[in-house]
Amino acid sequence: MAIVAKICGLRTEEAVQAAVAGGARYVGFMGYPPSPRHIAFHEAEKLAAVVPAHVLRVGVFVDPSDDLLGEWLEGGALDMLQLHGTESAQRVARIRKIAELPVMKVVHVATREDVEQAIAVYGAVVDRFMFEATPLADDPRALPGGNGVPFDWRILEGITVPKPWMLAGGLTPENVAAAVHATGARAVDVSSGVESARGVKSAERIRAFLAATAKL
């Protein structure tokens, strides 16, 4: 089975086109204002409109309100939701019911117990997991994700995950092959690793990342 890739935090048509042309299976739009990758929902709708049907459009949110979700969902521009906050299992289930879309829950990983606990808590209410590095506590610019920091991939060794999952956290065109070989991941997510500056996507690095995954 081929490795599938998600390019996240897209804000321009050039970046979207690079992701699509390079073979990305998912593209992500950030609905979280503190992030430098944030995009207003009406701009995301414009970008989503140029994404072909075989590429899934993912809305990325951090503890979103019903009102925020309603804005993003009204136009039918999303195919999946990615929840990056501290949402409880009950909240995730409610969001999934409201949206009537698949939901991917991000799990911040520092220890093996983080993974095991998340599977126990969320396994029945999500469609997919994403395993992401825990933000550094002493970094004042740290965000819930997209910090360019990997976690110890050995944490995932031998763990059975009952749902499909993606690997994220500090992935780049240069290290994605090592990450996949170490974890057995069949899906990967990248944001900061394909940027020329914080929040600025590089079409060249997007193409390089997707070329690297295509070889796996």
What does this structure look like?
The protein has 216 residues and is α/β, with parallel strands linked by helices. It has a single domain, classed as Aldolase class I (TIM Barrel), CATH 3.20.20. It has helices at 13-22, 41-48, 66-74, 89-99, 112-122, 176-183, 203-214, and strands at 4-7, 26-30, 56-61, 80-83, 103-109, 128-133, 165-167, 187-190, 195-197, 200-201. Helix 1 packs parallel to helix 7. The radius of gyration is 16 Å and the shape is globular.
Class of secondary structure makeup: alpha/beta
Give a short account of the largest sheet.
8 strands, parallel
Strand line-up in the sheet with most strands: 7-6-5-4-3-2-1-8
Count of folded domains: 1
**Mean pLDDT reading:** 93
CATH architectural name: Alpha-Beta Barrel
CATH class (first level) name = Alpha Beta
Taken as a percent bin, the fraction of beta residues is 15-25%
Superfamily (CATH H level) name: Aldolase class I
Which percent bin holds the helix content?
25-40%
SSE diagram, text form:
Layout: E1 4-7, H1 13-22, E2 26-30, H2 41-48, E3 56-61, H3 66-74, E4 80-83, H4 89-99, E5 103-109, H5 112-122, E6 128-133, E7 165-167, H6 176-183, E8 187-190, E9 195-197, E10 200-201, H7 203-214
Helix pairs in contact: 1-7
For this entry, give a set of tags:
10 strands, two-stranded antiparallel ribbon, 216 residues, globular, alpha/beta, 8-stranded parallel beta sheet
